[in-house]
Every structure is written in structure tokens, then in C-alpha cells.
Amino acid sequence: xxxxxxxxxxxxxxxxxxxxxxxxxxxxxxxxxxxxxxxxxxxxxxxxxxxxxxxxxxxxxxxxxxxxxxxxxxxxxxxxxxxxxxxxxxxxxxxxxxxxxxxxxxxxxxxxxxxxxxxxxxxxxxxxxxxxxxxxxxxxxxxxxxxxxxxxxxxxxxxxxxxxxxxxxxxxxxxxxxxxxxxxxxxxxxxxxxxxxxxxxxxxxxxxxxxxxxxxxxxxxxxxxxxxxxxxxxxxxxxxxxxxxxxxxxxxxxxxxxxxxxxxxxxxxxxxxxxxxxxxxxxxxxxxxxxxxxxxxxxxxxxxxxxxxxxxxxxxxxxxxxxxxxxxxxxxxxxxxxxxxxxxxxxxxxxxxxxxxxxxxxxxxxxxxxxxxx
Length: 374
Prior knowledge:
Elements: E1 8-22, E2 28-29, E3 36-37, E4 42-48, E5 52-56, H1 57-61, H2 68-71, E6 79-80, E7 85-88, E8 99-101, E9 106-111, E10 117-122, E11 125-130, E12 135-141, E13 145-156, E14 159-161, E15 164-171, E16 193-195, H3 202-210, E17 215-221, H4 225-230, E18 247-254, H5 261-269, E19 274-278, E20 291-295, E21 318-321, E22 330-335, E23 341-342, E24 348-349, E25 351-356, E26 359-364, E27 368-373
């Protein structure tokens, strides 16, 4: 049977979800294999080196670098507070002294006789990594973090912004074709993850942020509204570090596009359940998709239940069209012709025959992505 290798998009009712929770620098892992975890459980911690303050003591005191050592009132390793004296000149007859004070709280890291400079290192910055999702510790990576596992429903989106958020799912739109409006959002939704239908306007998103909504999952969003949210043009899509109170996950694409039935129905089935979302997106080498993870309570799954990477589309596969004129539509592959076909652009490409709402259409294989349903 013919195969075509293409990017995949997961919409899984139940899978064994695994996630690395790794520190940016080596530190201490605080849990052990088999431990039960809640999303807020701190699994590892470390300290990032504090910022460096370079003091040009010789310039400030107007002396030669070699004379700095004689003026210092501190030594390497000493702790200092903001405003503490670092160095002082003897002055004339004990008068007209000049001094240098520490600009921050920190530690004297180094003193250079050659340059007359003193380096003050600010206090270390504590960093903690939490579990993100309810589950258990599947593997401990010494001094770095863990691999978490959780029985969960798992949905991937097309695009997202903002990082990890968590909260209970709240169905707002009645169906996949309905727009989620600003009037439907209120203060009682603080900390919730809202489920919309086909579209979310800029006004509605701003209202959600004002109400401290944790996240929104919706079919479509206007591309040009992103600049109004982010304050800059997105360019190559690498997101997830935005300091926004509300994560946004778009499941279908830009514009008003009804959420796929598979995605909407799965979210609807889990209305009221706790979920974790991450809007981080990377559309280039090492693709990262935004995700919705909904732990399944009381489920037991074995290794055979792990979602595997799709082998490629074949006859009967469910696919989504990712280019106009059928952008966002989902259909079934009915054939994968081996010969090249000429498109309207006059280019010769490999195509797939797709059944979309009962109509068979030839679409370039490069314009498809696989939808992994379960």
C-alpha cells in the first residue's frame, strides 16, 4: 500500500503521555521514581548565577590600577550589601576622601590588580521546575530532572502563544462553529481554560487577560491581531516565552475556522476536568506544537498504549489541509496516485485524493498534515 510521509497532528482520547521536566542547569532532583505528582509539585530546583556588576574602581577613584588594592576595604569572597563601601582613598590629611560603594547586594567575586576592576556577583536566582501535569515519575535524570508519565487525553494545536498554564476546562461555545465573544467572558472564569468554537477576536482575548483566564482553546484567530497582543511582528513562529496571563491555543488556523469535530467533542467530553496547556510553538526544524493535556483519572495503561509517531498517510488516513483553498478542512485519503499531477501553478507534484464532505479532491501531499485520532 502506498505511503506518504507528512507532519502529524494528534487528537487522542487516551494515551500514555510522557514529558521531560528538565532544569536549565544541573541542580537537585526532589522526587524519586514512582512518586505521584500534582501539576504544582516541584520536581527539581537549582540556582542560576546572579548578574555581574563590573566596578571600574580605578576610574571612579581616579587612581592607577596598581593602587586599587591599597584602597580596598573588602576581599574576594566577602558578602556586601547595597551601599556598603568597597574602596576608599586615604585623602589629604584624612580629608577629601573618595569612595566606591556596592551598587547591589552580592559577593565580591574577583579583584584585578592589572585592571583595577572589582566584580560583584549578585545573589543566585532560584529556579524550580514543577510537574506541569498530574501523573507519576517514570524516570529520574540525575541532577537534571525527570520524565513524567500520565494517562491523559492529548490534543495538539496549530499555533499558540504564552507558556504553561493549568486550570479546569470550561465549555463556552455551544458548538464548533460558534465564535467565543467578549460578552461571554467574565471574572468568574479566572483560572479556567475556556473552550471556544470557530473564532476569538482581539477584544475577547484582551477581556480574557483582564479577567485572568488561564487559557483559551479556539479554532481560529486573526494573524494581524498577534502584533497588537505581542507588540511586535511574529516573523518565524517561535513562541512560549511571552509574559501573558492567558495562553492561547489555535487548533485550526488564522481567520474564522470551525474547530474540528474530533477536537471539539473531546474537549466537550472533558468539560470541568483539570487540564494543562502550553502555547509554545516552533514552526521549523524541531517542530514544537501547542498542546492540551487532560489527565484521565483512574486509568491504567501499558506500554502498548503509548502514542507512536505516525508512519505516514495511506489510504483511509485522516488528514487536514494546511493550504488554501481548502485550508483547515479535514478529510479521508481515498487514493495516493504514484504519478505526478499538474497543478494550477503549472508545477508537477505528487498528490493525494481526499474525500472532503463527500467530494473527492486532488491536493498536493505537501499541503496535508496527518491527524492522529484515537
